[in-house]
Amino acid sequence: MLNLVIYFPLLAAAAIWLGCRERGTLARSLTLAVICLETLILFGLAMGGNTLSLDAEWIADYGIHYHLQLDGLGLALSVLSGGLAVVAMLVGWERIDRWQAFGPLLLATLSGMVGLFAAYDLILFYVFWELMLIPMYFMLAMWGDPDSRRSATQFMLVTVTASLLMLVAIILLFIAHGVQTGIYTFDYGILKQTPLIGNTLLSKLILAGLLLGFGVKVPVFPLHFWAPLAYRKGDPSVIIMLSGAMANAGVYGLLRFTMPLMPEVTAAFAPWGMAIGAIGTLYGAAQAIRQEDLRGVIAWSSISHMNIAILALFAWQAQALHGMALQLLAHGLSVAGLFAIAALLLDRKRDGVYANVGGLYAQMPKLGMCFLFFVVATVGMPGLANFAGEALILAGAISRSILWGSVGAVTILLSVIYGVKVYGKVMLGPVNPRVPTELWDLNSREKAALTVLIIAILVIGLMPQLMIETVHLPTAELLAVNIDSLFGGVHAID
Amino acid sequence: MPSTDFYPVIAPALTGIGGLLVLLIGVWPRLKDAALVAFYASIVLLLGAMAVLLAPHEAAGFERFISLDPVNRHGWLLFTAGGLATLLLAWRDRQLLGEVDEQFCSLVLFAVTGTYLLSAATNLLAAFIGMELTALSVMAMIAWQPQRKGAIEAAIKYAITATVSGSIMLFGIVLMYAGSGSLYLDAIPGNLGGERTNETLVIVGLAMVLVGIAFELAVAPFHCWLADVFQGSSSPVTAFIASVGKIAMLLFLLNLADQLSGLWPAIHGVIIGMVVLSVVWGNLAALRQSNLKRMLAYSSVAHFGYVLLALTAISGDADGNADLLQAAAYYGLSYAVMNMVSFAVIGLLSGINPSADLEGYRGMGRRYPLLGVALAIAVLSLAGIPPTAGFFGKLFVFTQALNQGQLGLVIIASLAAASSLFYYLRILVVFFSVPSNEVSEEADIALQGDAVVMGPTLVISLSTAAVLLIGLCAGTVLTFI
């Protein structure tokens, strides 16, 4: 079953690539069908609530296992990835050409993501990590704005450099663990039973490599430099996958592989991690206020929100981690909603630069309402998903560190400012004379895409307990690694 | 005691004598069918492979000249397969059309014989003979169809390189003999320390042998000839150089490192210098190329830099030698198969784009989806993207090098690998972007007869499958080498 959910999209991708050479519309329908089926299977598994697992020897000489385990958190993020892929397809339905190529790439990325969330071996994880990256590059480079090739290449170079250094760190971890215990293995299940002891130079190097590799993907504050350009230049459908689903993989990796495998050195780093998260949040929000175009605002808002997740991660405390899981889902959904709006505006030949828009609400009230909903969700309106996440995160973070928790809280205020500003510039105000009059409102396909997101945001927002239960087991398991005494000296200020 | 097992000589004898027979068939009156000759040559190669397969599995030596052990057993099979692939590719290759006759086939057989000797040599002279036999045959193959642009130039460059490297290596062998009193690899370490031996001479000799090998492997700073030779020779011959010639040399180098591990630390500095120069310079130079063959040539420089990375930690008292050598051998194997795919694709498309300029391939991946997928897998493997063979090669080499504490080198190598992705992606982007011009019907490979496409298709599909399988079943592959 696990193999099926991982490789089904990949096999379908191969079949579509070879079978639909000149038939883009057929490829499009088939891709949608495959993604829907995949998402439904994943959703069914998530509802079932069982943890699937599979373990086999892969490369014995190097202690590499073919070990898969898909628990609640992984399933939730997989379902999110599948759902976002559906949304990305629906909003790109007409705009994206050459579906016979785009469809397989999208499917391959999805395959990589599900595999990544299920991987329980570091090398296997790395395999899926790269598997999702390569098709993403092609989607970024070949679709999107005419000059997207450059930003895509920059994205690729930055992430691959970081990934390779992460691979070096993984190998070092393998060796350090082998030296410490005599067991040379990449298997996460075995590694986490004997976490790396001590705060040595070697473990610092390992942590640095992992932080780099995962942090670039999130993107964590000083490593975010590739993101604004890539988010702005890529096709919004691709960016929905990149910012909504792939960014989660970075946080997920940090959550899975740093603290449980080397608690001491991570605990020593935790205050710095919280600081980075809080500063990144603040910086992202401040940048978002300065932007002059819709996609720029969404890009920086996404960076800001992902950094709150980093703040939560390094708070390493039950409330904050639960909040983080919610935040990952909520951010994925709301940023996807915003980029979907950007995509719909692009369909109507509006690129979202403030100078070219304004007063669109009068012409497209339905689109305007949906846009408003996503803006309000992003800002953190109570009752919607983001609020539940952020409230938990901030409560947890403040209990660890009043300073950084408060900095995180301030950004909510800032997010209101940029949220209101972007909505006002695009939707309200006088009608921009450059806006052509023949704009059409949402059609049923677009309504379907946005409705999926809206319902999901509402469900998570109104019943956060449901989601917390799903992710509780894995986070509790991760927390169990944390010996509170580790934090004793570090968090004396509390 | 020298054992006189005859198993190790059967395969080289078969291919060597087979080469002569193929030449004889060519001059036989009334028999002017080149297809028949190529057929016979293939049979000879298959017989050679049979001889290797049927030989007993224990290591067996012949007169302390060559020895067939489990590692080079599989090496020999690889070379045989490579020779067969070269024949298949060359047969009806557009650049060699009508020129593949009994002499070309016999040259392939002689070159394969040379690689057998070289890779299995337990005696420095055997290695030298093998190396020269391969080099001379390959030189003639490079110049095949001399009126082709660049053919003579490439052949002369190769000839000069091979001669220079051969003489340096010979000088090194002489010094090693003078210093230790033996040409047998396994006897040299034992002889040292005795009377009338001189360890310094042996080390200088070893360094010179290493430089000779570096010339043949085209490791920086001895790589200058490679790009011109790759560009000037026809793709089947390029594939042979990359996948067979270099790997044979690599196996000899690994054998040398294994036998002389005690002396190895003395030349670590030389190797480390070569590694750094190769991975950095190879990748940076490849970034600037606009010709696919030249690009792959510089990428080859970088790849052998990664391979040598595993050899920087060999030493007499370390217990990780076997693992290091295994990682390097795995890398060599994966390099061989992924380059076979790339050059087979280049050869198949040579009717459309004879110069192999990158721009000429625009849109080819869309026009021929299967070919595009094969090339994409090969290029991603070269770039070290999992789950291909190239990724696991890098993983194993990096792991072993880190295990020996080479953190700085591994970080340099991984940064260089990251920059290499830039040009590998460029290849893929060109292959899959919108075609700029229409392919003339005459050149369209989809319209051509089976005979033209069948050989390369077979080679491409088998070696692409190998790239994936060697990666996915790396655990099994490691037990063989």
**Low-confidence runs of chain B:** none
Overall outline of chain B: globular
User: Over all CA atoms, what is the radius of gyration of chain A?
Assistant: 22 Å
β-strand amount of chain B: under 5%
Using DSSP, what is the number of strands of chain B?
Answer: 2
- The gross shape of chain A turns out to be globular
Care to describe what's here?
The complex is a heterodimer of chains A (about 500) and B (about 475). Chain A has about 500 residues and is mainly alpha-helical. Chain A has helices at about 1-20, 25-50, 70-90, 100-120, 120-140, 150-180, 190, 200-215, 225-235, 235-255, 265-290, 295-315, 320-345, 360-365, 365-380, 385-400, 400-425, 445-460, 465-480, 485-490, and strands at about 50-60, 65-70. Chain A has a domain at about 275-480. Chain A contains 20 helices and 2 strands. A two-stranded antiparallel sheet of chain A has the order 1-2. In chain A, α1 runs antiparallel to α4 (about 100-120) and α8 runs antiparallel to α10 (about 235-255). The longest helix of chain A is centred in the first third of the chain and has 34 residues, at about 150-180. By secondary structure, chain B is an all-alpha fold. Chain B has one domain (about 5-480). Chain B is built from 19 helices and 2 strands. Chain B has helices at about 5-25, 35-55, 70-90, 100-120, 125-140, 150-180, 190, 200-215, 225-230, 235-260, 270-285, 290-310, 320-350, 365, 370-385, 390-405, 405-430, 450-470, 475-480, and strands spanning about 60, 65-70. In chain B, α9 packs across α12 (about 290-310), α15 packs antiparallel against α17 and α15 (about 370-385) packs parallel to α18 (about 450-470). The two termini of chain B are about 25 Å apart. Classes of the chains: A mainly alpha (about 500), B mainly alpha (about 475). At the A-B interface, β1, α5 and α6 of A face α15, α16, α17 and α19 of B.
